[in-house]
Amino acid sequence: MELLIVLLLVVLILGVGVSVVVTRRRAGMLEPPSILDETVAAEPLSILDEIVAVEPVETASEVETASEVEAESEVETESEVETVEKPRFRDRLSKARSAFSGSMGSIAGRSRIDEQTWDELEEALILADVGVGAAQDLLEHLRSRVKADGLTTGDELLDALKRELKERLAGFDRTLVYSPEAGPSVWLFVGVNGVGKTTTIGKLGAREQAEGHSVLMAAGDTFRAAAAEQLGMWAERSGALLVRGNEGGDPSAVIFDGVEAASARGIDLVLADTAGRLHTKVNLMDELRKVRRVADKGDGTVTEVLLVLDATTGQNGLIQARQFTEAVELTGVVLTKLDGSAKGGIVIAIHEQLGIPVKLVGLGEGIDDLVAFDPDEFVEALFS
C-alpha cells in the first residue's frame, strides 16, 4: 500500500515537470518570431519606405520639372524671336497685285504700242483708284518717255510705268518727327470713325515703346462709346500711360491734360486720339481746329498730324483727305487695311493730288503689321 502511494507521487511529480518544460518550450518558440516581426515589419520597412518613396522620388521629380520648364522656356523664347518678322509688301498685297496686274494683263506681251494700248492703260489706272487727273498726268509723261527712249512693246511700256511711279513716290520725307525742344512731342490722329485710328495709335505706341521712347496716350475721342476703353486696353498692352476724360467731354481739354501729364513725368511722346464723326459735319472740323490750337499751348509740341484712311474706300478716302486738309495742316497719311481689297492706286492719288506723304501702312491685324511705307517695295509688289 505504501509502495503504491509512493509510485503515484512520483508519477504526479514527473507529470508536472514535463508540463512546465513543454510550456516553456512553447513560450520560447513563440517569442522570437514575435520579436522578428516587430523589428522587420515595423521599423526597417517603415524607414525604407520613407527613404525610397519620399526623398528620392520627389527630388527626381523636382529636377525633371525644373529642367522641362527651362527647356520649354528656351524653346518658347527662341520661337518668339524667330516669328517676329517685318511683314513684306509682296506677301501682303496679293489682292491689290491681282487687281492691278489683271487690269494691265492685256498690255503685257504686246509687240507694239498703239492708241488702243494707251486707252487700255488709262482705264487700268482709273480702275486701280489712281484717279482720272493723276492717270492722265501719268500718261502724258509716259508718252514723252516712250518717244524719247524709243520704246515699242507693251512690256517696255509697263517697265516705264513702274519707273515713273517710283520717281513720283520718291522725294517725300516719311520720317515721324520728334521735337528737338524740351517737353513731349505730340502726334495727333484724325479721321472718320471706323478707319482704325485707335488701333493705329495702339500699334504705333507699342512700336515706339519697344524702340525706347516713353509714351502717353490721350483718349480725345470722347464722343464714341467705348473709345477710351479700347485705347486703355492698347495702353496696358504696350506699357504706355493713359489720360482720359468723361464721355461727351471736351476733347481739347483731354489732350491738353495729357500733354501736361506727359511733361510732368518726362514722357517723350503723346499720341492723341480725336473725334471721328462724319467729315461732312462742320462742327467736327471746328473741333479739330480747336484741338490743334490747344495741343500746342502747353509744354508739348505738335510735330505730326496724321490722317488715318481706310485704303479699301478708294476715291472716297481722297475726298476725306481733302476735307481734313482744309481743317488742319496734315503732315502725313496712315493707310490701314492695305492688305485687304484695296487696289493700291489710292497711294498714288494721295501723293499726286494732295502732295501728302503716306508714312505708315497697315498690312495685317497683328501688332507688328503697322509698318513704314516703302515706295519702291510697294511698286515692286504691285507688278511682281
Question: Would you give an account of this structure?
Answer:
With 384 residues, the chain is of the alpha/beta class. Helix content is 60%, strand content 11%. It is built from 14 helices and 8 strands. The protein has helices at residues 2-53, 55-83, 89-92, 94-104, 115-127, 132-149, 154-169, 197-210, 227-238, 251-265, 282-295, 315-327, 345-354, 375-383; strands spanning 185-190, 215-219, 241-244, 269-273, 301-310, 332-336, 358-362, 370-372. The chain has an 8-stranded mixed sheet with strand order 3-2-4-1-5-6-7-8, sandwiched between helices. Strand 6 (332-336), helix 13 (345-354) and strand 7 form a beta-alpha-beta unit. Helix 12 (315-327) runs parallel beside helix 13. The model is unreliable at 16-83 (pLDDT under 50).
List the helices and strands and how they pair.
Elements: H1 2-53, H2 55-83, H3 89-92, H4 94-104, H5 115-127, H6 132-149, H7 154-169, E1 185-190, H8 197-210, E2 215-219, H9 227-238, E3 241-244, H10 251-265, E4 269-273, H11 282-295, E5 301-310, H12 315-327, E6 332-336, H13 345-354, E7 358-362, E8 370-372, H14 375-383
Parallel strand pairs: 1-4, 1-5, 2-3, 2-4, 5-6, 6-7
Antiparallel strand pairs: 7-8
